[in-house]
Design goal:
With 110 residues, the protein is mainly beta. It contains 2 helices and 7 strands. It has a 7-stranded antiparallel sheet. The longest helix has 9 residues.
């Protein structure tokens, strides 16, 4: 099953792209909720490059690592990656003041 989540960001495409592809920016916004945070992130933004992040509960009770390999990149438009035996696609659709970010990914098989 494929799952899609979408949001609109009130910023120019250049800023949204940078926030999505820069480790320091990722650590600022990538959290499941206010009681979680991303403590580390790496990005090698090229086809075949690896990315990773570490997300933890702020109380230190639990955490997990997330990593993948970039399979396709079209600057300011598209990022595709694999993670384990699954795949994901991130689409960026911009207008002068807003960017729609749509993430579609394979669900985990239970």
């Amino acid at each position: 099953m494929r799952i899609t989540v979408e949001t609109t960001v009130a910023a120019p495409i250049e800023e949204v792209w940078r926030a999505y592809t820069t480790p320091e920016d990722i650590k600022q916004w990538n959290a499941a909720s206010d009681d979680w945070h991303t403590t580390a992130a790496t990005v090698d933004l090229r086809v075949g490059g690896v990315f990773s992040s570490r997300m933890e509960a702020k109380d230190g009770s639990v955490g997990f690592d997330f990593a993948g390999v970039y399979t396709n990149i079209v600057k300011h438009k598209l990022i595709e990656y694999s993670f384990g035996d699954r795949a994901a696609q991130v689409e960026f659709v911009g207008s002068p003041k807003n960017v729609r970010v749509r993430v579609t990914f394979d669900s985990e098989v239970c």
